[in-house]
Design brief:
Length: about 130
């Protein structure tokens, strides 16, 4: 089985889904990763803010960050090789990169409607008013 790791820029929380403005791409990625996990296909997901040592300890990512800075994130690795930078894989790319059946993520391609409830800044526990 191929191993994928996603190295993301610093976000308020591990998924980037906190706060009042939810990025639909981060929601899609979280949904895809949950689907993969539920089918026994773990994907490592590392946020620069919450898992900085993963960036330091991974030689390829450390070299990438030193050369390009965090602006090029996210970086996608498969079997310890950087295969994509600056964006997340599409659902189709996920299945191809991980050698999975196309239908596994086919139903994920439809937009997901999300009801967003707004909280006052600081009510979610985030520091620095990030919400």
């Amino acid at each position: 089985m191929k191993k994928m790791k996603i190295f993301e820029p610093a976000m308020c929380c591990s998924t980037g889904l906190c706060g009042v403005g939810v990025d639909p791409e981060l929601l899609r990625i979280s949904t895809v990763l949950n689907t993969l996990k539920n089918h026994g296909i773990p994907v490592g997901r590392y946020n620069l803010n919450s898992a900085p040592m993963e960036f330091v300890n991974n030689k390829a990512i450390n070299t990438y960050i030193n050369a390009h800075g965090p602006k090029g994130l996210p970086v996608i690795m498969v079997d310890d090789k950087i295969i994509m930078e600056g964006r997340y894989p599409t659902n189709e790319e996920f299945t191809k990169l991980l050698d999975l059946p196309e239908e596994l993520l086919a139903k994920q391609s439809k937009p997901v409607k999300v009801k967003i409830t707004r909280k006052k800044s600081g009510d979610c526990g985030c520091k620095g008013g990030c919400c």
